[in-house]
């Protein structure tokens, strides 16, 4: 998809969004779908690991007259995504928290059994990895069960398509 338009005259354009290299096409598509005329102001460049956070953002701009509508379109998309992002955040934190708790218990048992810190460290690491896997599998099974249950208004839930 050829959505990348590099502007050579950025004076009449207003930057409305800064996207990472992997989300530039998505952001351009959102703005095009809203009937706007987005332009990519920067070329993606190969950068070192140290410069990644600072230099990997690509500016997306629109003509000054479309700036307000462009910001509103991007804000709507981000607002619609917020509940999904929050749910994913809660899942990840639950899995990592469960893994940490199991890792701490494994460290205590490892220290008691081995009578040294090496055993505790090995137990903590193994327990954390095992805990994350165990809690992750349980969480996935729970999610699968919830997808099978009918929605609260009596309609069946749509199955999410996996990519």
Task: Offer a quick outline of the entry.
With 163 residues, the protein is mainly alpha-helical. It has 4 helices and 3 strands; from the N terminus they run βαβαβαα.
Number of strands: 3
Number of helices: 4
Global geometry: elongated
Structural class: mainly alpha
Helix content: 55-70%
Elements, N to C (H/E): EHEHEHH
Rg to the nearest angstrom? 24 Å
Report how far the terminal alpha carbons are from each other: 19 Å
Question: Biggest sheet, open or closed, and with what strands and sense?
Answer: 3 strands, antiparallel
What does this structure look like?
There is one protein chain. The protein is mainly alpha-helical. The protein folds into two domains: 10-75; 83-148, no CATH class. It is 58% helix and 10% strand. It has four helices and three strands, in the order βαβαβαα. It has helices spanning 24-33, 52-55, 67-114, 117-148; strands at residues 13-20, 39-40, 57-63. Strands 1-3-2 form a three-stranded antiparallel sheet. Helix 3 (67-114) packs across helix 4. 20% of the residues are buried.
Question: What keywords describe this structure?
Answer:
10% strand; mainly alpha; 3 strands; 4 helices; 163 residues; single chain
């Amino acid at each position: 998809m050829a959505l990348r338009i590099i502007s050579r005259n950025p004076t009449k354009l207003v930057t409305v969004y800064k996207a990472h290299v992997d989300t530039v096409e998505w952001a351009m598509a959102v703005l095009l779908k809203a009937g706007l005329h987005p332009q990519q102001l920067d070329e993606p460049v190969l950068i070192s690991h140290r410069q990644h956070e600072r230099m990997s953002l690509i500016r997306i701009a629109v003509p000054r007259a479309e700036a307000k509508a462009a910001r509103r379109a991007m804000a709507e998309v981000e607002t619609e995504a917020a509940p999904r992002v929050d749910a994913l955040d809660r899942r990840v934190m639950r899995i990592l928290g469960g893994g940490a708790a199991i890792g701490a218990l494994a460290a205590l048992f490892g220290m008691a059994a081995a009578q040294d810190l090496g055993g505790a460290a090995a137990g903590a690491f193994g327990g954390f990895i095992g805990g994350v896997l165990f809690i992750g599998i349980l969480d996935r099974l729970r999610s699968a069960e919830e997808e099978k249950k009918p929605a609260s208004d009596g309609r069946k839930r749509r199955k999410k398509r996996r990519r």
